[in-house]
Design a protein that fits this description.
With about 190 residues, this protein is an all-alpha fold. It contains 9 helices and no strands.
C-alpha cells in the first residue's frame, strides 16, 4: 500500500478536522514508525507496507487517539506497528518453512479449500457482528485479538485499569457470542 492510497482514503474521513488530525498524526509519526518497522523486519518494502497498514488501522480508530498526550498516542501507534511487524515476521517464517518442505500445505488437500472458505465466512460474520457492538467493547476485542495485545497493554493504551479492561473483555466476548448466535452461528 502506498502513501497515495492513504491520501485517497482521507476523503472518506468525516470532516476537515478528522482529515487534519490524521494528516498531523501521519506527518508526526511516519518517519519514526518506518525506522522502528525496519529495525524489526530488516526489509525496506516490508517496513513500508507495515507502516501503511498501521496508518489504515489508525484511520479506522482516530477517536482512540484524539485528546491523548503525544506519548500515549505514540505508545498506541507503536504497539500496533510492532504487532503488525511481528505478525509479518511470523508469516514470512511460516512461508519459508513451507517452501523448505517442498510444497505448500494449502495445496496438499482439496479439503483445505473448504477450510479456507469456512474461515472467510467466519471472518465476514465476525466483522458484521463487531459492527453491531458498542465501540468500547469492539475496540478491546480488536486490540486483544486482532493486534494480539495483552490486557495490561490494552489498559495502558486506553488509560484504564487492567481489571477494568479484563471485565470489559469478558462482557464484550459474551455480547459477541450472543450476536453470533443471533446470526445463526452456534460455534465459533
Amino acid at each position: 500500500m502506498e502513501a497515495a492510497e492513504i491520501y485517497y482514503r482521507l476523503q472518506f474521513l468525516d470532516g476537515e478536522q478528522e482529515k487534519d488530525f490524521f494528516e498531523e498524526i501521519y506527518e508526526t509519526y511516519r518517519d519514526e514508525m518506518y525506522r522502528k518497522a525496519y529495525r524489526i523486519l530488516k526489509n525496506r518494502h516490508d517496513a513500508e507496507d507495515v507502516v501503511q497498514e498501521t496508518f489504515v488501522t489508525l484511520m479506522d480508530n482516530l477517536d482512540v487517539l484524539r485528546g491523548n498526550s503525544p506519548q500515549k498516542n505514540w505508545n498506541y501507534i507503536l504497539t500496533i506497528l510492532k504487532n503488525k511487524s511481528f505478525n509479518l515476521c511470523k508469516q514470512r517464517k511460516r512461508q519459508a518453512d513451507q517452501e523448505i518442505e517442498g510444497e505448500s500445505l494449502e495445496n496438499v488437500f482439496d479439503e483445505e479449500l473448504d477450510v479456507k472458505f469456512q474461515k472467510l465466512e467466519r471472518q465476514e460474520l465476525l466483522t458484521e457482528a463487531l459492527k453491531h457492538m458498542n465501540k468500547s467493547y469492539r475496540d478491546i476485542l480488536l486490540l486483544q485479538y486482532y493486534h494480539d495485545m495483552s490486557i495490561a497493554e490494552i489498559a495502558k493504551v486506553l488509560g484504564k485499569s487492567p481489571d477494568n479492561v479484563g471485565h470489559m473483555s469478558r462482557r464484550a466476548k459474551k455480547k459477541l457470542k450472543k450476536l453470533l448466535k443471533k446470526y445463526g452461528f452456534e460455534s465459533f
